[in-house]
Specification:
It is a single chain. By secondary structure, the protein is α+β, with helices and mostly antiparallel strands. The chain is built from five helices and seven strands. Strands 1, 2, 3, 4 and 5 form a five-stranded antiparallel beta sheet that branches. A two-stranded antiparallel ribbon has the order 6-7. Helix 1 packs across helix 2 (65-78) and helix 4 runs antiparallel to helix 5 (152-161). The termini are far apart.
């Protein structure tokens, strides 16, 4: 079994309910959720939008990394994510990101470093995002990032100092 670390996020009006549904579906389709952070609220990152709610989930999985990606993409679709609508919104606004009912990103897959056309793990922007580091430190503060070589807590503390 591998340990996969996910972050779920939503800026829909019913965000916390969507995160709870995502957590249940992750447990069913990816693997048992062994740890979960509290839900953290933060401003939208990289675009103007309502605030987001985020939660980190740590699951034990028998799925290969790209099978996890397929599973979380299917969960997003089941919970109302419409990537075509997002593309249209981004084109209309000129922003890099768009609001979405649910977003699930893979932060880590064990200590593996993965770079394929479809998947980059560890998530390449996580060290720049407090909305990721804060809930991640809550459940994995001592985990050493496989490419940065520092614990999540060290990365978070350095980010706060900058």
């Amino acid at each position: 079994m591998a340990r996969v670390v996910l972050i779920t996020g939503s800026n829909a009006p019913e965000a916390e309910k969507l995160l709870a549904r995502a957590r249940r579906l992750v447990a069913e389709r990816v693997g048992a959720v062994e740890k979960e952070s509290t839900v953290h609220r933060s401003r939208a990152w990289g675009f103007e939008a309502p605030d987001f709610s985020n939660q980190v989930l740590v699951s034990a999985t028998s799925l290969a990394p790209e099978a996890v990606l397929d599973a979380v993409n299917a969960i997003e679709t089941a919970l109302g994510r419409d990537r075509q609508r997002e593309l249209a919104e981004k084109a209309a606004t000129g922003q890099r990101y768009a609001s979405r009912p649910i977003d699930i990103d893979i932060l880590f897959y064990d200590c593996e470093v993965i770079g394929t056309r479809r998947l980059t793990v560890p998530h390449p922007l996580m060290a720049e995002r407090d909305f990721v580091l804060d809930p991640l430190a809550e459940v994995m503060r001592d985990f050493v990032h496989p490419t940065i070589g520092k614990s999540i807590e060290e990365i978070r503390n350095e980010r706060r100092k900058s």
